[in-house]
Design goal:
The protein is α+β, with helices and mostly antiparallel strands and 127 residues long. Helices cover 30% and strands 31% of the residues.
């Protein structure tokens, strides 16, 4: 069975190759798309945020919160991050929100203000 490509104003076949003729500016748009979508650290997942603070002593307070969490839950990965102007402590590495909910329920008594956030996971951190 032979298949033939249909020619239109935007495509042509030259020497056995399909040639695409883009509208002006489309290549720039494709490059922007690649930059935004392929610059991520890793796959999207979920973590539980247990602390956030801004101000003069925010980093120290966040470090204390991280240490306290690690003492209480040494088996759960925890991270201190900075997203201007806040220092945040997030924990867990979950691909699915339902998994993060289980952690949230587990730590709710100690961290009543905790909530689930979307975050980029590093491949080596994934369970």
């Amino acid at each position: 069975m032979n298949a033939k490509a249909q020619n239109s104003d935007s495509t042509s076949i030259q020497g056995g190759f399909l040639v695409l003729n883009y509208a002006p500016g489309i290549e720039l748009l494709i490059e922007r798309y690649k930059k935004v979508n392929y610059s991520a650290i890793g796959p999207e997942g979920y973590r539980v945020q247990i602390f956030t603070a801004a101000g003069n002593e925010a980093k120290e307070k966040a470090s204390v919160a991280l240490s306290e969490f690690q003492l209480s839950f040494p088996e759960i990965a925890a991270y201190l991050t900075y997203q201007q102007p806040n220092f945040k402590v997030r924990c867990g590495n979950y691909r699915y929100k339902s998994e993060a909910r289980k952690l949230l329920k587990r730590i709710a008594y100690q961290y009543p203000g905790a909530f689930i956030v979307k975050d980029f996971l590093k491949v080596e951190e994934m369970p």
